[in-house]
């Protein structure tokens, strides 16, 4: 009797226990479907990277002697949706059982739950064997609390998994968090490490994708494609990161530069989110590098906080809030995205760089996503759902479980502060401190009023002024409201009028 086992495009983990034994009666099913290319408008590189990774895993599994049923996007038999293709495969192989790994996205979890409910053969969902935490672990930890403090979750994870802890059960170095040491801007030294990722020529695959009719945006870069194809390449990427970038990761974690788009980040999110790499091995390798004296504690801790802390935590937020999280919009923002989200053509140098990089590489750093693009969107009042779809489409690492809480919760405060303790917004002063963008910008970073004034400035004061009822009671907001109250009413009015003028010409900024 044949068992069909479905492997989704973000389940590219060749170490899964499924593959430990060869069973002649197990057929692995993988499919490239328009259902998955089309649920949102995707960056070209994201579609290429996932399909290329799927094809590579299928190749490796076959080479190891497993049976694989693979449907390419252009196959005549491909009916372009999971249920339709599964129906066909069950019939073709006369399958007696169906199994799948737990999907990470609500959309797919629901679809497969519905599908298996009506299936005449038995079915089983197994663990994807990837995350540290269960779906509901964060929810249990935060039971009854209004705010879900990441730091609380992170410390509990450090203790539970014995990460960066000393023999007495205390955090290594005596502190849980070295954020304070991690806020430097970058002046050009030390130099950004070389990009040691191998390139691939995916132009043939790209032609197949185009021929299928799937729409996309952004640069395909199909001939010089640098995202990892498989676990081996991802492990090399991890080693390269630890050796060349981790030592400086911490201090320049929040730095931005027009001269170096990668700086000291790992670029590992795609390999992690498609499960080519396991978060445990990444965390272990970084902790080991610190133990061997190859990286300072502030860097190792800063990095581990992102993977063991933020990554698992946002997943917990997602599963506790779905469905419904996608509709949250506490400020009622509704402006459409300006056209330069699709071409990067804006005179605001910080945004031109952050969006330009996103369109060119299908990637941007956390600080660009949060304090440039997200910051502007929140201050201007862009529609959070539209923004969420843009983030979900553009980034190589964007899968809803991680993208949605970051976009709607952390960056847009759309959930009213479940995840972020305060809105992450700033005027030009912060961007100027952390980057070299403002010096060459057509806008004046110091001015608040007038044609040449940096748009962030008036929008910043306008944001706090118009949301006083929601935000004034927030103790983390600090000096903003006392400062606003000290201003002449006419000055506040002028700032609000300037913000309205900015909003009226978003497309031409
Ligand atoms: P590094 O800076 O090297 O960090 C190491 C790893 O930590 C990352 O690979 C990632 O796995 C993890 N990590 C870091 N920050 C976060 C975070 N806030 N949440 C979850 N994991 C984190 N990350 C995604 O993986 N997918 C997304 O769709 C995504 N959307 C985002 C949207 C917004 C608005 C914001 C503010 C952040 C988003 N992030 C997302 C988090 C973060 O920006 C990316 O994980 C990071 O930039 C990936 O690049 P890197 O691998 O070089 O990261
Ligand atoms: Fe961005 Fe304003 Fe600085 Fe220009 S002046 S780079 S728009 S923050």
Automatic annotation (TrEMBL):
InterPro entries, A to Z = Crypto/Photolyase_FAD-like_sf, PhrB-like, Rossmann-like_a/b/a_fold, UV-DNA_repair_photolyase
| UniProt GO molecular function | lyase activity
A Pfam family annotated for this chain is: DPRP
Q: Does the keyword Transmembrane apply?
A: no
Q: Which keywords are on file for this protein?
A: Lyase
Gene3D superfamilies, per database record: 1.25.40.80, Deoxyribodipyrimidine photolyase-related, DNA Cyclobutane Dipyrimidine Photolyase, subunit A, domain 3, HUPs
At the top level, the lineage of the source is Bacteria
Q: What is this protein called?
A: Cryptochrome/photolyase family protein
Q: Which organism is it from?
A: Pseudoduganella aquatica
Q: What is the lineage of its organism?
A: Bacteria, Pseudomonadati, Pseudomonadota, Betaproteobacteria, Burkholderiales
């Amino acid at each position: 009797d044949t068992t069909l086992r479905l492997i989704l495009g973000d389940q590219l983990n060749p170490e899964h226990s499924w593959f430990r034994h060869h069973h002649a009666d197990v057929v692995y099913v993988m499919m490239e479907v328009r259902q998955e290319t089309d649920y949102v408008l995707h960056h070209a590189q994201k579609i290429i990277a996932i399909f290329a990774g799927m094809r590579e895993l299928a190749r490796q599994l076959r080479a190891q002697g497993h049976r694989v049923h693979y449907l390419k996007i252009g196959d005549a038999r491909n009916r372009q949706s999971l249920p339709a293709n599964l129906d066909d495969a069950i019939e073709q192989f006369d399958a007696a059982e169906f199994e799948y790994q737990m999907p990470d996205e609500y959309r797919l979890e629901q679809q497969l739950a519905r599908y298996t409910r009506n299936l005449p053969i038995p079915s089983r969902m197994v663990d994807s064997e990837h995350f540290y935490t269960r779906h509901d672990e964060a929810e249990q930890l935060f039971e009854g609390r209004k705010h879900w403090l990441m730091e609380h979750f992170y410390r509990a994870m450090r203790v539970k998994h014995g990460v960066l802890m000393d023999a007495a059960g205390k955090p290594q170095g005596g502190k849980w968090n070295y954020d304070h040491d991690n806020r430097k801007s970058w002046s050009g030294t030390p130099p950004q490490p070389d990009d040691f990722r191998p390139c691939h020529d995916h132009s043939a695959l790209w032609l197949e994708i185009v021929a299928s009719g799937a729409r996309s945006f952004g640069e395909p870069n199909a001939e010089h494609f640098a995202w990892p194809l498989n676990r081996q390449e991802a492990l090399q990427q991890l080693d390269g990161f630890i050796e060349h970038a981790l030592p400086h990761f911490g201090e320049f974690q929040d730095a931005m530069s027009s001269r170096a788009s990668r700086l000291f980040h790992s670029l590992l999110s795609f390999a992690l989110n498609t499960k080519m790499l396991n978060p445990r091995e990444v965390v272990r390798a970084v902790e080991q590098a610190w133990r061997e004296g190859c990286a300072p504690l502030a860097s190792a801790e800063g990095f581990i906080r992102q993977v063991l802390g933020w990554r698992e935590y946002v997943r917990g937020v997602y599963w506790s809030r779905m469905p419904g999280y996608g509709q949250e919009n506490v400020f009622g923002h509704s402006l459409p995205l300006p056209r330069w989200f699709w071409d990067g053509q804006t005179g605001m140098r910080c945004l031109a760089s952050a969006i330009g990089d996103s369109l060119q590489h299908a990637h941007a750093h956390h600080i660009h996503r949060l304090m440039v693009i997200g910051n502007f969107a929140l201050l201007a009042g862009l529609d959070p759902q539209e923004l969420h779809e843009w983030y979900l489409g553009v980034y190589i690492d964007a899968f809803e479980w991680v993208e949605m809480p970051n976009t709607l919760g952390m960056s847009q405060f759309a959930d009213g502060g479940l995840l972020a303790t305060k809105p992450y917004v700033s005027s030009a002063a912060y961007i100027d401190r952390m980057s070299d963008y403002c010096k060459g910008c057509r806008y004046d970073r110091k001015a608040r009023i007038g044609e040449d004034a940096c748009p962030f400035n008036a929008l910043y004061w306008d944001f706090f002024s118009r949301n006083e009822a929601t935000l004034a009671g927030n103790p983390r907001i600090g000096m903003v409201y006392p400062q606003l109250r000290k201003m002449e009413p006419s000055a506040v009015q002028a700032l609000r009028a300037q913000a309205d003028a900015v909003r009226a010409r978003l497309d031409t900024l």
